[in-house]
């Protein structure tokens, strides 16, 4: 179940080690400000002084912003880039954070004191982020499962992750947003099924293995290609999202199409997404596109909850030797580079593929429940929930 975390504070003042002093160009006394200017030399000197002080303040403001952007901590491994506003206030600066970061004020202040050598009175203020994005009715949290490149197993990871969450008592749904290549119907054994409606206005989601499901694949005939231009595809996605009669869900996993195109932009502009999970393989070709996905979500201020390295290794049935078919630890390197958490390194396993083809996620195979790969999927589910609790104002309890 979900619990709202209390707001720890509404403001906080700190002073950092005195290396430089931020000055205020408006701190001159009124009498001096009103003093009559004399010669042109006096005027030039005053203008030059004001200009230099203004440049100093801009430089100091940039230094402060960089210090905040570069903060490194497990709670916000990607810093707080793009989520801060810095304004001049008297002799110091006021730093405004969205409330989602406000509860981490003690960590931010502590890190600033440890990792920077700036000096100024800094006041932190927090307020709820003002946004025109809509929350989906009955959905508490929305998580995008994305990849820059197709064929990395993103839909397979989504299906197994959803099944793990359902097994732990989480009310979970999956929205298949891959308009051009929907996979959810097949992976959940619902291929060929058509959507139904009770009121003629909204679509009723399917439920399978305790997971609520909807996909464009339930709307478009199975053997028909969706030859749609970007605007039409985006409109279709919004219809599937907003016209689905979702039950009350703790979390909705959105299986995103590969890339950073119209569908991704439509989602980011219209739907309040609480975080993104990036799926990649260790291969350099896939990692290059995964980085583009990370950068895109950063630009639209969607927290990166973590990275999953899929098809990490293959263990030979015959000799027991581990083979790194797509390279080794590429996902870890990518996660370290972008300061995001590596949540799992999942193996390449025939049983995972077979489960997807047969319409039953691998983790639901009781004969394989104790296998290492199944346990790694369950650990991924737990790690994802921990990241959500750290980066949002909600906590989901497993079990």
Features:
single chain, 399 residues, Rossmann fold, 2 domains, 36% helix, Mrp/NBP35_ATP-bd
Strand-helix topology:
Elements (H helix, E strand, L loop, with lengths): L1 E3 L6 E5 L14 H5 L5 H30 L15 E5 L2 E7 H4 L2 H11 L5 E7 L11 E8 L7 H14 L4 E5 L7 H4 L18 E3 L2 E5 L14 H13 L6 E7 L6 H9 L4 E6 L3 H16 L4 E6 L4 E2 L6 E2 L6 H9 L3 E4 L4 H9 L13 H20 L2 E3 L3
Parallel strand pairs: 4-5, 6-10, 6-11, 7-9, 7-10, 11-12, 12-15
Antiparallel strand pairs: 1-16, 2-5, 3-4, 8-9, 13-14
Helix pairs in contact: 5-12, 7-8, 9-10
> Helix fraction?
25-40%
Gyration radius, rounded: 25 Å
Q: How many separate helices?
A: 12
Annotated CATH topology of the largest domain: Rossmann fold
Assess the beta-strand content as a share of residues.
15-25%
CATH superfamily of the largest domain: P-loop containing nucleotide triphosphate hydrolases
User: What is the CATH C-level name of the largest domain?
Assistant: Alpha Beta
Largest sheet data: 8 strands, mixed
- Order of the strands making up the biggest sheet: 8-9-7-10-6-11-12-15
> How many distinct folded domains?
2
State the low-pLDDT regions, or none: 1-38, 127-132
In one word, what is the shape?
A: globular
Mean pLDDT: 75
Structural class: alpha/beta
Distance between the termini: 9 Å
Task: Quickly give the CATH architecture of the largest domain.
Answer: 3-Layer(aba) Sandwich
How many distinct beta strands? 16
